Structure formats: structure tokens, C-alpha cells
Structure prediction request, 233 residues.
Amino acid sequence: MKNWKRILAAALASAAVLSLSGCKDTTKDATVFVKGELDCTYLGTYDKEYLDVVADMTEADAKEKYDYNVEAEASIMLGYLDINTTDETVVERAEKLVSDIYSHAKYTVANAEKLKSGDLAVEVTVSPIELLPLLTDEFVQDTWYNILAQNGVETQDQLDALSDDAYDALEVEYANIVLGELEGLMSQLSYGEDQIIMLQMKKDDDGYYSLVESGMQKLDEVMIDYSGSYTAD
Prediction:
């Protein structure tokens, strides 16, 4: 998996101005905030209660947050599958697949607790989505080698001699077959062993709370299990 891409994506998402305003009932608002963040990020849904506790958040901002995360996850997935093309139809297909996968996101958010430091902690239980592990290495390798053979590419020298456009055409063909296989496997989607992630919210000098990036990065890594790390025995 391209971990550096995933970390970057989470960091950029966290960089948005999504701070929880300090108030009397901070623990309740923190719970609303975290659940709203997850619903917005993975399900593309949001409600007035969530928008009200986030500083300067609009419906347009919430939609943009979801769209951004889908695009970032699609880039991660294409990288993991070793699909190296910028073909618009492939990218759009990958984004549609990610949106479909995200629609199965399953998590529970516990009530927030206030720590002695004044920070807030929210426990989130995530059920990792198990889809990518269903795609076998054998299928992926056979797909690529079959495409090469069908196009008369039998040696490394022949592969190296291909023009950029010719190679990209093979990439697009490979991408569509692999993405199509994943689409067909959606009916077999399952969940791995539940993972508990503790999210921390730190208070700044102006009385606003914001999520610590490392917790969200971990949660994002767990949401879709690329390598079968959380598959139940």
C-alpha cells in the first residue's frame, strides 16, 4: 500500500478549518463533531447538528470534504493496484467504486470524555471493510500478462520499446479489467475484526478544539483493509 499517500490525504483533510468551538457542553458537541466528521467523510451525509458545532462549516464545505476524500482514496487504491494512468474514465470509475465501498462504512462513536489535561477523547470502533483482499495476486498478474500477450508483447525489450501512448493504452485495459473484477466482488464484501481507535481533540488558546491528525490517519488506514491485516480468522 502507498502509506505515504494515505497519510498525506488524511493530513490535507485535517488541514481544513473544522474546529469545535469551546462551550459548556463540550463532550456532547465533541461526540456530534466526530460522528459528523465520519459521516461526512465516508458516507457523504451531514446534518444541521454537525454543521452547527463546526466553525464556519457550510453544506458546500461538507460536500467538498466528501468529494475530496473519495478522490484521495481513489488515488490510493489505483496506486495500490499498480494502475499508473491518468485516463479520466479510469479515474472516474475508481472514484465511483470508492464511493460504493464507502457506502458500506461501519463504525460506532462512543460518548466523548474530558481528560485531565482539558483535551477531549472520543473512542471510535471501526469495522474494516474487506474487499481488496478478495482480489488475488494471481488474478492481477495473469490479467497483465494476458494483456501483454494479446498485444504481441512477449519480451521486456518489446515492452520497453512501446511508446508512452501505447503503454498507457495497456494500462487502461488492465485498469478496467481489475476495477471490473472488484465491482463484481462487491457482493462478497465483508468486515474484518473491529478496531478501536481513540481520537483526541486538543484545545487551542482561543478555546477551540480540533482533532489530532494521527488519530484520523489511523482511522482512515483501518476503514478499508487493503492487505487483509484485519481479516477475521
Summary: The CA atoms of residues 182 and 191 lie 16 Å apart.
